[in-house]
Predict the 3D structure of the following.
Amino acid sequence: MPFDLILRGGRVVDPSQKLDAVTDVAFSGGKVAAIGTGLKADPGTDVRDVSKYIVTPGLIDLHTHVYWGGTSLGIDAEEFCRLSGVTTAVDTGSAGPGNFAGFRKHVIEPSQVRILAYLHVSHAGIFGFSHRIMVGESEELRLMNPIEAAKVADENRDLIVGIKVRVGLHSSGTSGAVPLDIALEVANEVGMPLMAHIDHPPPSYEDVLARLRPGDVLTHAFRPFPNTPATAQGTVKKAVLDARERGVLFDIGHGKGSFAFKTARAMLANGFYPDTISSDIHQLCIDGPAFDQVTTMSKFLCMGMELSDVIAASTVNAAMALRRPELGSLKPGSVGDATLISIKQGQFDYEDVVGEHLIGDRKIASEGVVIGGRWWHPN
């Protein structure tokens, strides 16, 4: 089969194959067709010289809010993904069973970029989140809709990858961990993983972790105090280590209030790397401090994580969390998504959610995106 597109001569970094080499990547029929040097172009093949760039599997942002127009926190997925090098945006609970149909029809299906979703157990998802109105949807147990959530998740398995719930003082108030228990019932019923948001206690970090199952995701995992995973002595809490041992996944979910350099330094110093790096992009953090996926990745690069580990946390690891092994890889036969990045050298000012600044010497920049085996929005 003739190649539709060849990315020629880039440094290909694909942790799913433990690959880091200068080579070509070819696409055909919407999939990765071949990797190798000197791949032969046909007369109709789109050949791109990418020798100045690093080629990675299409970046997956495991925590976004892209129900644009349907919720006040939603941002435009296509614009964000093109600028941030993301080929799969995973919306985490913007919609619940009461409004997922609109999300699917009006945002997901028309989108050129892939959008997957964790379905919120609350009827209307995260409906009261803006600059002026902040309503924790999990505060009101009357909004919990487990029966409809299970039905909607089951009927939309092509797009829904799991169940989402938010717990903590700001999102569940005096309801505490009860919404989490309800969401776990739904996740068990439909056989899907759960993603749990955590903010200020109650419940505590330990209380939430104790409930999570293998394959479940704790997002906002590197939070500032309170509900931080690190102790005052700079060690990792035993409950955190125990949870990882039994298969709970730890996601960054940077956002407006959920990532601190102090916490990250402690965790990385103990060799506790995040399973997945995600931006938690939404209207209240797209202009800072999160900005986008590549900026969030850059922070970890500047804190000492190896580039291959940073890329893995945004590709193959995220694909495994989603249970979508066809994503996050450039193995022949995988979905034909790729991201082109460069590593800028200089002095770059990064900020966390508590106002601490880090002057980093490197910045990951998005230079181009391939979606479904085609160059997307050529620069």
User: Anything to note?
Assistant: The chain has two domains: 5-56+333-375, 58-322. The CA atoms of residues 12 and 55 lie 5 Å apart. The first strand starts at residue 5 and ends at 14.
